[in-house]
Amino acid sequence: MELLNLHRIVDVTLAEGPGARCAVWTQGCSVRCPGCFNPQTWSTRGGFSLSWQDLAARVLAVSGIEGVTLLGGEPFDQAGPLGLFAAAVRSAGLSVMTFTGHVLEDLPPSLLVDSTDLLVDGPFLADRPEPSRPWVGSANQRFRFLTDRYDESIFATPNRLELTIARDGAIELNGFATTEVLEALLEGERR
Ligand code: SF4
């Protein structure tokens, strides 16, 4: 059984793509963009192992989501089992949004590409910050509408930051904010 190496799963979020979604961060990134916001996902060590079948069962047990978002790390470093996962959840009616640090033209054919509705491609370039579109860090990154499930109307969705406080007091943050917004939040914290 080919295992996935994962960094984190958030069962329901409004901050990682259009609508309510399950977000899955993979562990391991061979792209390694300078200035990446998630360098803790670069190493293939760490994270946790899960079969794609178990991940699919977990996601399909979540109610009220319209899809899954695959983030990195670099999802295409694990394109084989992630493609099987994506095909399974799509055949159950969920949409699949996948982020990659590669450009689509450089990706070899894969079930993961074939099972992705919305691909966000391209490396993070720290010197080209994205001025307006949600969920992406730099302006070179492209939204590739691979099926008719989504279109440019998704750009009206605002970026969100989600703060989750678990029963044990653990705090988790996900979503996307510009450096300016984060600095403004921290400034408010200091006052
Ligand atoms: S591809 Fe994503 S996770 Fe990997 S270095 Fe670039 S921004 Fe970071």
UniProtKB/TrEMBL annotation:
InterPro entries: Aldolase_TIM, NrdG, Organic_radical-activating, rSAM, rSAM_sf. CDD domains: Radical_SAM (cd01335). It comes from the Bacteria. The keyword Isomerase does not apply. SUPFAM superfamilies: Radical SAM enzymes. Keywords: 4Fe-4S, Iron, Iron-sulfur, Metal-binding, S-adenosyl-L-methionine. One of its GO terms (molecular function) is metal ion binding. Pfam families: Fer4_12 (PF13353). Its cofactor is [4Fe-4S] cluster. PANTHER family: ANAEROBIC RIBONUCLEOSIDE-TRIPHOSPHATE REDUCTASE-ACTIVATING PROTEIN (PTHR30352:SF2), PYRUVATE FORMATE-LYASE-ACTIVATING ENZYME (PTHR30352). This is Radical SAM core domain-containing protein.
